[in-house]
Amino acid sequence: MTSELLITGSVLTSLFLILFVLERFVPLRKARRALARRLLVNLSISALAIGVAAALVQPTATAMLQYVLDRRFGLIYLVDLPAPVQLVIGFALMDLMFYYWHLANHKIPLLWRFHNVHHIDPDLDVSTAFRFHFGEVALSAGFRVVQITLIGVSPLTFAIYEMVFQANTLFQHSNVRLPVWVERLLNKILVTPRMHGIHHSEVWRENNSNFSVVFPCWDRLHRTLRLNVPQSRIVIGIPGYATTADSRLGNALLLPFVRQRSYWQSVDGINVERNPADIKMPLGTMEE
Description:
Layout lengths: L1 H24 L9 H37 L11 H25 L1 H11 L14 H18 L3 H19 L6 H7 L6 H7 L4 H4 L9 H6 L26 H6 L34
């Protein structure tokens, strides 16, 4: 287990650094705030999240994996299937359940209080990838219990999915500009930076789209896909939490526990909407 964690940590750290460097040379969107202060806040929030994940979520997942393995419990075991088929089905079902968990974090007010900390980052780049409030991470332990026991996922499938999940979380949050034709091809299989950038838009309809984590097919299936917003027209963040003070570490950590503002209105009380003139492509066509 220790060697697996070291390998996973090394791979993800290397990918983070590669994407971080590429963002400096070929950015997808222009930055709105100074990098140094944002980086300090994001890494601090991420460190707390990773600490809670290691102390609570990982032990919970490990215990549940052993439980379903010993009892052959879960959907996977309803039909006797070859191990490779079980792996593929288990991987897909894990990703589908993460789609529903992400959707729940936007639709359930209590969960959104915590998830909003991820979205109020005024810029979107690879440093945002693990910027999740430690409370959201703690709550996700309960989701992991449901996910693992319902599916009956094996430890191997879980480990493979976790690696892909974490790596693509870094990739989709990155501010790396790929040629749009390359990203259109990649987006047939994976959630990509342009697709996820729309999810971080300050416009409510755009924020409430593109919930997929690894495979974008879940958004297509549930009709929550939106690809036709130009990245140059996207303002990252949540309108009601767009001040410099909101981005400070202490305020971000306290945000779920204080009275909430109107999320989708700017500080002057105006609902933020998309200018129809910005949209020139069909909903499912990725825009530059």
